[in-house]
Amino acid sequence: MASTALRQQLSIMRQSLFDEGILDHDQVSYLETLENEDDPDFIENIFTLFLRDSTKYIDSIEKALETTPIDYPVMDIMMYRLKGSSASLGASKINGETNTLRKFFHDGDMESGKASLQKLKAEHANFKEKLAVYVGMLKQAKLSEY
Amino acid sequence: MATHINGSWELGAKMTALVVDDDSINQTIHHRLLEQLGIENQVARNGKEAIDIHCSGKKFDLILMDRDMPIMNGIEATRKLRAMGIRSMIAGVSTRCVKQEIQEFMEAGLDDYQEKPLTSAKIISILRKIHHSGSISY
User: Fold this and answer.
1) What are phi and psi of B59, to 5 degrees?
2) In the record, which positions carry 4-aspartylphosphate (chain B) (predicted)?
3) Confidence (pLDDT) at A142
4) Residue A35: strand, helix, or coil
5) Share above pLDDT 70 across residues of chain A, in percent, rounded to a whole number
6) Minimal Cβ distance to A88: which of B22, B70, B116
7) pLDDT tens, B77-124?
8) Which among B10, B55, B129 is positioned nearest to B18, based on CA atoms?
9) What are phi and psi of B2, to 5 degrees?
10) End-to-end CA distance of chain A
């Protein structure tokens, strides 16, 4: 059983992710119900997958924007992937920023789009830092149960 | 046939589903979600893979079709599956919420459309349509 102190830390960290609007409480709580003894690392795995894939999507959006001419089809696909996966994970702020980004580019407002991309990158960096800590604590808690 | 009895699904034969989505997060979540509902399922990464799986002879009771995918998108894949005579329940799953875009997807041959994020409740609402149609389609 994970130590009381570790479990408390985990609980506080989890709540702070909700309070800061980084993760959606309802969606994450729902995803947690999908974890069981058949798939005990489900939550850790999807968080880790999202940390990896969201980075790739944002990098691809940036590269597509830097090509001449701008690679709109790639940008579109990456923005939809990021929108879809962030919605499924409950990554609220990233989902919100992605929607804003898409709107600017679809409206042809490139300047606002580029500024919005910087905002998304900053939000993503914050998300990665905090979620990496949380996933680390989840792993630690599981290890201490053995 | 899927029968809803006393709040749970009784499956005469085990139901099968195909998750068609290019994003690994959605693949993982939708696969797990279906598994938890007792639905045997596999994943295709895009519309072309979905077509290829059907060409190999496999059939499914339910297909969860993402709209935006590389190589072959969900609209094209749905049209092709219907042209191949596939009568499985096909539910479009996407983050698109503009009426015209949803309409375009529905007109490709969907039986239902659900906005992401997908939940057990949304899948059960799709399963009820299979129940009410009285058959599992192949």
Assistant:
1) -135, 155
2) 66
3) 83
4) coil
5) 98
6) B116
7) 999 999 999 999 999 998 877 889 899 999 999 999 999 899 999 999
8) B55
9) -90, 125
10) 7
Cα B55 to Cα A61, A117, B50, B52: the distances in Å are 34, 41, 9, 5
Distance from CA of A5 to the nearest CA of B (A): 30
Q: Please answer whether residues B117 and A88 qualify as being in contact, where contact means their C-beta atoms are separated by less than 8 angstroms.
A: yes
What's chain A's length in residues?
146
Task: Please indicate whether, in this complex, the C-beta atoms of A49 and B26 are within 8 angstroms of each other.
Answer: no
The pLDDT value recorded for residue B132 is 59
Nearest-CA distance A142 → chain B (Å): 20
- Rounded to an integer, what distance in angstroms lies between the CA atom of residue B61 and that of residue A53? 30
How far is A2 from B126, CA to CA, in rounded Å? 40
Residue of A75, A81, A99 to mutate for B, most B C-beta atoms under 10 A: A81
